[in-house]
Amino acid sequence: MQPPTIYRLFGDKQGLIDAVAAHGMELYLAGRPEPDAEADPIEALRLGWDEHVGFGLANAALYVVVFGTPRSHRPSPTA
């Protein structure tokens, strides 16, 4: 893909990063099971944490884009 195409599709570098972050958040949420109202809350928290860490380990670079500290003053669309 040529740089002009990237700018046409995403506007600028931050637009591309925002699109990657939004896609990463969609992947993150798609992998999470529906909450079980009858589940033990402590166990549900443990499972949720394990899933969160697992996503980060399996998708390290994407994790940083989704959950890392923003580097611009423009709010991310996933915020």
Tell me what the structure shows.
By secondary structure, the protein is mainly alpha-helical. It has one domain. 66% of the residues lie in helices and 0% in strands. It has helices spanning 3-10, 13-30, 41-58, 60-67. It is elongated. The mean pLDDT is 87.
Question: What are the salient characteristics of this protein?
Answer:
79 residues; elongated; mainly alpha
How does the helix and strand content classify structurally?
A: mainly alpha
Question: For the report, how would you describe the main beta sheet?
Answer: none
Mean pLDDT across all amino acids: 87
The counted number of beta strands is 0
Shape annotation = elongated
What low-confidence regions span 5 or more consecutive residues with pLDDT below 50?
A: none
In total, the number of domains comes to 1
How much of the residues is beta strand, in percent?
under 5%
Helix-strand pattern: HHHH
Short description:
It is elongated, with a radius of gyration of 16 Å. With 79 residues, it is mainly alpha-helical. The protein has helices at 3-10, 13-30, 41-58, 60-67.
Helices and strands, with pairings:
Layout: H1 3-10, H2 13-30, H3 41-58, H4 60-67
Helix pairs in contact: 1-2, 2-4, 3-4
